[in-house]
Amino acid sequence: MRNKLQPYRTSIILLSALFIGGGMGIVFPELALTLKPIGQIFLNLLFMIIVPLVAISVTSSIARMKDLNKLGAILVSILLISVIMAIIPAIGILGLAMLFDPAQGVSLDLNQSLQTSVGDIDFVDLLTTSDFAGLLSKSNILALIIMSVLSGIAIGRSGEDGKKISSLLDSLNTVIMKLVAIIMLAAPIGLGAYFASTMASQDPELILTFARTIGLFFIASLIYLTLGSTLYAWVGGGKQGIKVFWKHAIAPAATALGTSSSLATLPVNLRAAVKMGIQEEVADICLPLLVNLNKGGASMITALKIIFIYSLLGLAFTPEVFVITILISLLSAFIIGGIPGGAFLGEIFIVTTLGLPFETIPILVVIGTVTDALSTVINVIHDLNATQIIERINRWAPQ
Question: Which of 152, 263, 294, 370 is most enclosed, with most CB atoms within 10 A?
Fold first, then answer.
């Protein structure tokens, strides 16, 4: 039993700390409020590391992709399919959340003014800064990601000099991930304390909104896994594609659910792809790339987190916010989700980009942690779908 729970050990510890903190906030509010500085120290440690973490991780990962230029059309197909498979679930979950509001009238009262208000989102300021110093602020993470991607491309095209920079970035990335790991040792205490102080002055019914939100995600995921996967399999191989997909997708799905890791499931996915009739050379090229790029489950839960928090805070979910939500969800799936060790980076990315209160971070962590395993299942089996489609687009004939 202990071995079966080992992949979920970190999540179980974190969730336990958050639930204990939330319970303390409801039962002993005065005591809980005194714990806020502990949580703030932990969050500040994360905020201090977020800029170098994003800059170094994204730049180094893109720089290492320089040899992929040789793949030509197949790389374009992988990127295009990954983007589409991130946008579709994000739009779908937003539509469901608009029809069935998981907050249902429950509000989060933080007694503070919000940076975000209707109609004040400036896309120019969101995507760029007026000088280099602006990239060093956690409030400009989106601009930092864009510049990091461009820098990575430039390094990858700089020949021998670029290889030297890339090697240095890899070493810096190793160090910064160790630093993140050290900071994360305090996550259960830090987030538990912060969540306790957040819940101290809130309506106990707030807890019920978590259940409704997570339930909505589970229902949406099951629909998307069945109907979406069937549609993708049909696009990739017609009726026969549907048949072979469902015959061989169960093992990767079960492995993903048990390990909560796309990378750990890669060997199983490679074997399943070959059994489905996909050429081995195609699977060997596509699946390792799709592990990092194709994360529809991450996109889906990111979109749900944003609309849920907006509903809790009583903020209008305007068309501008809708577009930014899709963009954030896409980046969470396409780039952020591929940063190893980037714990809570997605949550910080959400609150800093949208100007939301930091008190919402533990709420986002609860939702993300509980739904992580099912999100991984979506990521993994849709990697198989994507490989089917890519093989068909590039006119490789199944053996």
Answer: 294
CA pair distance 15, 367, nearest whole angstrom: 10
- Asked whether 301 and 325 are in contact (CB, 8 A), the reply is no
d(CA 248, CA 381): 10
Tens-digit pLDDT profile for residues 138-197:
777 778 878 888 888 888 888 888 889 989 988 998 898 788 888 888 888 888 888 888
User: Taken in order 210, 211, 216, 217, is the CA torsion positive or negative?
Assistant: positive
Both structure tokens of 63 = 């720089």
**Calpha distance 373→258 (Å, rounded):** 8
The secondary structure of residue 154, as a DSSP letter, is H
User: What fold is seen in the domain 2-393?
Assistant: Proton glutamate symport protein (1.10.3860)
- Is residue 65 very low, low, confident or very high in pLDDT (cuts 50, 70, 90)? low
Q: Residue 202 phi/psi, 5° resolution?
A: -105, 160
Q: What is the per-residue pLDDT across 191-245, written as a single tens digit (0 to 9) for each? A: 888 888 877 766 667 777 888 888 899 999 999 999 999 999 999 889 999 999 9
Integer Cα distance of 16 and 370 in angstroms: 11
Work out the number of other CB atoms within 10 angstroms of the CB of residue 399. 8
d(CA 225, CA 59): 33
The pTM assigned to this predicted structure is 0.77
Instruction: Give residues with Cβ within 8 angstroms of 172, minimum separation 6.
Output: 56, 60
Q: How far apart are CA 37 and CA 179, in angstroms?
A: 22
Q: Classify the C-alpha dihedral 352-356-361-365 as positive or negative.
A: negative
Which band of pLDDT confidence, cut at 50, 70 and 90, is reported for residue 132?
A: confident
Residue with tokens 């629909």: 223
pLDDT in tens, 367-380: 888 888 888 899 99
With residues binned 3-state (H G I as helix, E B as strand, rest as coil), the percentages for the chain, rounded to 5, are 80, 0, 20
**Residue for token digits 């180094």?**
60
The secondary structure of residue 397, as a DSSP letter, is: P
SS3 294: coil
Q: What does the alpha-carbon distance between residue 10 and residue 111 come to, in Å, rounded to a whole number?
A: 32
If DSSP codes are grouped into helix, strand and coil, which group holds residue 190? Answer: helix
pLDDT at position 85 is 92
Sole residue written with tokens 């500040």: 44
Long-range contact set of residues 2-6: C-beta below 8 Å, sequence gap at least 24: 4/258
